[in-house]
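Database export, one record per block. Field names are fixed; values are copied verbatim from the stored entry.
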Amino acid sequence: MSRPVRCEYGTSLCSVQENQKLVVEDCDPDRVADELRAANFVREGSQFIKRRTRLRRRRSSTDNEEDGLQVLTARIVEDTLHVEPSDVVGVVRLLPGMSVQIEPKVDWDDVVRMLLTVYEIERTDSPYGIPLDEMTAGGVDASRIIAIFAINYVQGLRTIKRKGFIRNLEIRRRTGFEGIGSIDMSQTLLNQASGNPEPTWVETQVEYSNVVNETIHMAGKLLLRLLQQTPHEQAHPQQNALFSMVHAEVEQIEERGVRSSQKRLGAYRRVSLSDLPRQRHYYQRALHTSRSILASTLLGQAGSGPEELLVDYALSMNSLFEDYTQRVLSRTLDSLEDIDHLDELETVECESEPPVYPFEGNTDATYYPDHLLTDDKETLAVLDSKYYREGKNPAHESGSRSRMFSYAYLTTTDRMAFLCPLYHRASLDVNRADATVDIVSPDGEFSCETYESILREYLLDVLAESYPELEVFDAVNKGMLCLDTATTEDLSRIEDVNGPFSIANPSSFANKIISAITFSTRGPNKLDLENGGGWTKSRLKDICTEQNDDGSPKYPSDRTTCVPVYNPDGNDDYGTITLFLIRQADDGSTVAESETRALL
């Protein structure tokens, strides 16, 4: 752990990074103990623990984790208070008048992007509670906070729309010849007996206006105001999109007849999840976020400058990183399926926290790997998300390493990977086993873009072991298929030795490659090439007719096809051609090899 941050007792806002110790100096031990209890810390032995409700229930959680998300641990040492945050980010109240701002290990923009990525998923069973502070007096960037507010608010409303708004059914009776509903026959007969021929209708009206829905509506209106008032230079890059999303949700609430008033703000702030019936607990995220918005905004006051209210919030980065990684894995797998012209990946999926049982017929003992890459019943790789500090190698940690080996043994796979934000790419061969542990992490500074890119590389590498044609499809997707009369639709015939990718006539095949390049807008003219392309043609023919040491053809034409891909940026002299040769081995498996040649 890095050196602790020190601050004086009474400092309004102290900033530390995740897992970094904070030392508050010049404290009165007896007074601080009482203030910790007042700030909702619970004493456990010599420590004081502050927890937040864990809105995301992990299947792999221990009993202690189920008690709540541990946010801060405090210990009184003489006249100092030693505070240690866990892997959370946010602003958490430490003592009356003192709060701790916990900064993420990665950049805040990446935290917001992770949230946006996770919350694009329509399955909304993995919420994060984020009661946030508002505005900038304490040094907190408003655009970060408002963006996270908006993301949580929209996803909370989507959950409610899918599962149903709280509503009341009101039964009303109305007498007249025109009505909607059913007729109250007894009352209608009494009407007629008294000389009134009009029937009495029983009308059922659905009423959505209640204090819970009004609370969420009021929070939405305030959130729109915050999104509008943020100065342009401080606005989040996706501010307009977030505003549109929130505006659409608020409009749909109003379409149900829900209205809110600032006069009832006190009642709105008192609404809690415990006021709802158990079957309505899916209101959790929307209500939690709405109450945070209401608590962090001063209404009806002007001229006092930015608000300085601080409201506790804590975002579990461990959970967020795991959910973000799962979303990226699933999305990447979908993108690879889109370029799979042989539909080989139809049975491949990446499961999140699947149960793995070590004993036959016993479901009490269970492992839950973070991610499992499977093909039908075969496990291709087991993946574990590790949101570790910079420079920490997860393979060096005994507990993580032992669990990973257990996962691999139980799922009978020889591919394992730790997915980390702040290490570097590495590959470790396991002694006395034909197995590999990869550490998948960007080299250098973390960003979501680099992390997503390296995850794609890893998935492609694992899948290509079973489906080598996938690397060919990926190369075509990135470059240009350069074969005259062949298109990407023909890639479904990549294994047909009598099809468009046949090399039975190497000279004709080479001519088709050169023609496709020279007639394209990306390649040079034929006259720009040596001998009008004759030199290139000769090199291509040499590859297709290459022989083994025993004189046998390396690429027999009755078992080999070839997909040429042109890369105009391959070198300074008009680019390169890569020949992907797909050969059927004697045992029936497919082998893909590549040979790259320059045009000049």
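Remark 1: The two ends are 55 Å apart (CA to CA).
Remark 2: DSSP finds 15 helices and 23 strands in the chain.
End of record.
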